[in-house]
Amino acid sequence: MADQDSVVEEIAKLNVDQLRQVKEQVESELSVLQDSLVNIRTAATRFEMASKALNTLSLQPAGKKMLVPLTASLYAAGTLTNPESILVDVGTGYYIEKSLPEGNDYCERKIKFLKANHDKLVEVAGSKQNTAEQVAMVLQAKMRQSSTTTEP
Amino acid sequence: MASMKELQQQLEAKAARLAAIQKDIGKNHQVRRQYTIQHGENEMVQKELELLEEDANVFKLIGPVLVKQDLAEAKANVNKRIEYILAELRRMEGTLKTLEEQQRNSQEEVMKLQQRIQLAQTGKAKS
């Protein structure tokens, strides 16, 4: 690839110290990308769980007795009034009332969106990984060179 | 010729200024990242609102209260917020460019001072 060749040239021009700096920088960028990938996967899993919860909700009849969470450890007895409509948190403090199929649709849309981002990130991480490996190789070669030239 | 001590003091002052500029650049990056994230979130909300029919119910969480909102009003609010964020981002980009230029100038000054100090030291060593 023409891009990779020019990158290799640039790397070859750097001395050992600069190479070490570049290697550290690329590795830290790579670690940030990995974290983002994990976050995306977590978010996608949460949406899938929400979708499953919706399916369970759709099976419940109106008037069914349920426990309503008031805090993390306190529940109150209640009845399911309307299993047809749900409130969806869309961000920045906005909630939209939707029907069950619309809610499922929303979850699916979000999951698709997250998958697309995930795949894009995997590509970027892959090319960063290549760059890191190349920098490491050139660094090793230079270090071997300088150790042989400094011997009396 | 300025004495060694004066040169060292100048170098310290210039180096401190360079460090302050770099700190500002770091802060600029951080704030810009925040704004970019908010922009993304607001865009998603905007898209969701667009998909709604006119009679859909929209609520806004204000403190602990869910308040019913008019769909048109909600859309207008989100749009205004997006515009505001975009304006802020543009402003920060301008500030960043100015800061980067200041950083370059400051780095040059520090390098020049370092060279002068080196020359003065070698001059002293010879004599």
TrEMBL record, chain A:
Keyword Coiled coil tagged: yes
A Pfam family assignment: Prefoldin
Statement: the UniProt record of this protein carries the keyword Transmembrane: no
Listed InterPro entries: PFD_alpha_archaea (IPR011599), Prefoldin (IPR009053), Prefoldin_subunit_alpha (IPR004127)
Matches recorded under CDD domains: Prefoldin_5
Coiled coil: 9-36
UniProt entry keywords in alphabetical sequence: Coiled coil
UniProt similarity note: Belongs to the prefoldin subunit alpha family.
PANTHER family noted in UniProt: PREFOLDIN SUBUNIT 5 (PTHR12674:SF2)
Protein name per Swiss-Prot or TrEMBL: Prefoldin alpha subunit
TrEMBL record, chain B:
Keyword field: Chaperone, Coiled coil
CDD domains from the UniProt entry: Prefoldin_6
Chain segments annotated as coiled-coil in the UniProt record: 82-116
InterPro entries in the record: PFD_beta-like (IPR002777), Prefoldin (IPR009053)
Superkingdom, taxonomy of origin: Eukaryota
Membrane-spanning intervals of the chain: none
Record PANTHER family: PREFOLDIN SUBUNIT 6
Family classification: Belongs to the prefoldin subunit beta family.
Name of the protein: Prefoldin subunit 6
Native organism: Sphagnum troendelagicum
